[in-house]
Write a structure and sequence with these properties.
Elements (H helix, E strand, L loop, with lengths): L12 H14 L5 E2 L11 H12 L12 H15 L8 E4 L1 H13 L5 E5 L6 H7 L3 E5 L11 H5 L6 E7 L11 H14 L2 E5 L19 H5 L1 E6 L12 E4 L2 H14 L5 H13 L1 H22 L15 E5 L13 H13 L1 E2 L1 E2 L8 E5 L4 H17 L1
Parallel strand pairs: 1-10, 3-4, 3-5, 5-6, 6-7
Antiparallel strand pairs: 2-8, 7-8, 9-12, 11-12
Bound molecules: 4'-deoxy-4'-aminopyridoxal-5'-phosphate (PMP) and glutamic acid.
Length: about 400
Amino acid sequence: MLSQKLGSITPSYTIEISRRVSELIKEGKDIINFSIGEPDFNIPQKSMNAMIEALSRNATKYDNVSGLAELRKAIIKKLNDENNLNYDTDDIVVSNGAKHAITNSLIALLNPNDEVLVPKPYWVSYPEMIKLVGGVPVFLETTKETSYKVTPEIISSGLSSKTKMIFLTNPSNPSGIVYSEDELMKIGNYCVEKGIYILADEIYERITFDSPFVSIASLSESIKDMTITINGFSKSFAMTGLRIGYSASNKKIAKAISSIQGHLVSHPSTISQWGAAAALNECRDEVEKMKEEYKQRRNIAVSLLDKIPQLPYVNPQGAFYLWLDISNYKDKIVYDGSYSVAFSNELLQKGNVAVVPGIAFGEDDFIRISYACSKDTIREGFKRIESFLRTL
Ligand code: PMP
Ligand code: GLU
């Protein structure tokens, strides 16, 4: 009865785990939730005020398919001021979250069976999005030695005559790694040389701790022309439920994205868009405060993790995740199928800590921890993880 496409699609692990955890908490269980990547902050006050104000002046009618003029103007200014990127209004399409901006881009560029390179570990939804629009994900292996980053050599291992695009997540969910300018330049030039589009998912761009963030499209005109930059308000502005993201690309691609969006959803909620415009124009201080708090949390989490040498990791320089290698416990867990799922289930049942199994991101010897929670929660969670590991 259902489309054959569904046969190869797995529901989102992150969303499913988060649903299970909410149920357990409702039942009265004391769970530390390190699973979903959702900021625990409220949205900035001025953004909320702008939405209330927009509602009270009835800003509730259909508007421009590509997004409110005021919001696109704010996005262009942000890209110019912060990322050294020059775009016109016509290059920006505002969508229902970064997820939607990515899917629009895939629909705009992929023909049936076109291949899309997806470096591992990847964010959970990429392969399913690619398959849903008729493309084929081709996975690229990375290693701890290259800090789970791709290089032109690694990219070359996945190339074929059908390669159309590569996903580049910077900072990375789940590993938290951040690419340097030099690394991005090499990747960008290589992709231009090979004629591969770069889908640059920069949704965690404002949450970087140790060095300034570089947007790959800012490195040259030819790289910019081949790049679709994706960003959104869910992470930096803690606006997950308001569903605003956007793409910035060359005019031809932006026009295609806009016409796709016009048929599928018209545009995202006007009220959310007014909130997003205010977030960009008036709430930079709040973003800085959140970032500082994430940095302190990262430092706490990493210092606690250093006391558990059996869980190797790469120090995250951005986003709010830790990518932990659990391979040292492989002979201590009984599993028939996915090891990381079995490990995560035991940790939840016996240790009362919820994490996301690495298999969701393409690597079964890992788990992902989200530290978008209070410092006390982080301390208590690591205490529980340590006790749990001692029982194995
Ligand atoms: N890309 C990455 C890397 C993410 O972690 C997420 C998580 N939400 C998204 C895209 C989608 O974000 P949004 O809420 O804007 O759809
Ligand atoms: N991106 C977040 C995560 O990885 C939110 C969940 C989702 O959108 O899938 O946990």
